[in-house]
Amino acid sequence: MTSDMKNELLRLLETESSGSGSGVDLSGGGMRSWRWSVSGVMRLLLRWFRVCPRRGRRRRSNRIQDLWSYGRLLLKSLYFNVLTSSDTALDCVFEPIYWLVDSMTRWFGVVFVSLVMLLTGSVVIIVYLCVLPIIFSSYPVHWILWHLFYGHWNLLMIVFHYYKATTTCPGFPPQEKRDIPTVTVCKKCIVPKPARTHHCSICNRCILRMDHHCPWLNNCVGHFNHRYFFSFCLFMSMGCIYCSISSRDMFLEAYDAIESSYQTPAPTFTHQQRMIHKSLVYLWVLTSSVSVALGALTLWHAALITRGQTSVERHINRKETKRLRLKGRIFRNPYHHGKMNNWKIFFGVEKQSDWFTRVLLPSTHPPHGDGLTWDGPAYRNNTLLI
Fold it and tell me: Which of 30, 240, 257, 294 has the largest CB neighbor count within 10 A?
């Protein structure tokens, strides 16, 4: 109640008390009836809004504004924090879509793994049943030995690294309290995160040196299985290129034979010959398309390894580079040890013979470091941590 309303109320009370002295005896400390008090307040309110209509409308408008301001404050209190930005708001809007994609990826992981094994198995069967008999019957001895050696070595490397990539744990930060350096706290796990650790929404856990979640592995690519993943991509690309080049002439002959079946009169091919023709066409088309797609992915990861960063860190480093460029500063990746040293650290090469025993042959040696702490290069000073 404002001061004007209080003054008006006092004046009306004095008027009412002086004009109705005969109605109620005030001598002897008597009190007026409560009904009189209520009626006096009601008359005061009616007179106030009748005499001052503008004030009443302004009071009502002010009350609406107060309600509107209070509603906005209440709404902001439900989601506001100091890190709120347009990116955060966009993430909140797309959160249902992210949840749907994560759920579908988690469920389709088993389907994708089965599809990889099915397609790879079909190529191997076609090579054994269709390609190798043609090689044995028409190729010289040295080429036969080459195809037998390289083909089986490549197949062994593919199977070994794919099995290890899908079954090896990528690495999780410790849940208990330990004396290890951390850079932040995960907003979803509510546990300290070491450097280069990121949260996977599909696995619903933090992953050490996380690169990405691969649905074709149904597993995250992290510190302990990153080498297996890249080696699988590399040897699978090499195997598809090898099959595509080796079966090119067979593919052209099979394609011409299939096209000639529409001629009149049609050539006489047995059922077995027609199946071989279709199988060779299927083999060449599949291996050629996979070699292009998977080869591009392998080159992409090779460039990241050369720079000493993961897929997640690439986006973070790009933002840091732009932010520091505006301030006239230069960003340096604190985990870049030089191009050749990055490859040695990635493959775990400690001596020259390790290039043969650990890279060109199946090896289960652990990666460099424990994924919790990282040794910086010689120019570690004046760099920014990720």
Answer: 240
